[in-house]
Amino acid sequence: MRRGGAGGADHGPGLARHRDALRGARAAARTVGVRERREIIDYPPLVVRHEERFDPADTIARASRLAPEVTLAVQDGLNWRVSRPFPDGELTGNVTVESLEELASRPVSRVVLRDPGSSDDAFQRMVESLGLHEVSYFIGWSAWVDIAPLGVDKARGLALVCRDLGVAAADVLAVGDGRNDIEMLRWAGRGVAMGESPEEVRPQLITSREVSPTVGSSRS
């Protein structure tokens, strides 16, 4: 990561603008958050301010037919409904086990496909075989894929928050380490890819973006 010393090129109006934007982001973070690509929330208390939903029936039918070993989950507001339990610690909030018919019965904001026993390559081939053309999907870490309404991603959610706060994209600092962060890193005035990011994340960053040293990882 490039740093400017005393009197260096990073000092001046550009640095001041990013410093002011960071201060504003810290203040906003106390009250507004972007959860994945589908929801905008207030916290605390945890309240959904904006949510986009879609019909999961076709996605669930395809996944259960082509990959019956996969565990499915749907996000329903602040709650999760799952086909079978996920590994401990992967889902937070209220989690309920339901049949596939119940999971597909009403619109949701996200579908997750998870196969802890699969290799990354095998899991990616399975996802590609589903033919997911009417939704947006992002393959994450350890055989996990998020499926959301078409055109909905973190960049869209962040743009909505910034619009409400009166913050321009040029004044936004975005930091990410996953494939589902690519659109957000492109959208922000400054995008920073974490050092442990997958290789396909880093080429998305043009010269004004940065790749940070490795400091740890998270799935969000």
Mind explaining what this structure looks like?
- With 220 residues, this protein is of the alpha/beta class.
- 27% of the residues lie in helices and 24% in strands.
- It is built from six helices and twelve strands.
- It has helices spanning 13-29, 57-66, 100-103, 120-129, 154-165, 182-187; strands at residues 32-35, 39-42, 47-51, 71-76, 79-82, 95-97, 110-114, 135-139, 144-149, 173-176, 190-193, 210-211.
- The strands form three sheets. The chain has a six-stranded mixed sheet, covered by helices on one side.
- Strand 10, helix 6 (182-187) and strand 11 form a beta-alpha-beta unit.
In total, how many beta strands? Answer: 12
User: What is the element string, with H for helices and E for strands?
Assistant: HEEEHEEEHEHEEHEHEE
Radius of gyration, in angstroms, nearest whole number: 19 Å
For the largest beta-sheet, the strand count, sense and barrel status come to:
6 strands, mixed
What amount of the residues lies in strands? 15-25%
Helices and strands: which structural class? alpha/beta
Q: Helix content range of the residues, please?
A: 25-40%
Unreliable runs, pLDDT <50, ≥5 residues?
A: 1-19, 25-37, 215-220
Q: How many angstroms does the end-to-end distance come to? A: 23 Å
- With strands numbered from the N-terminus, the spatial order across the biggest sheet is 6-5-4-7-9-8
Helix tally equals: 6
Q: Which word captures the global form?
A: globular
Overall mean pLDDT stands at: 76
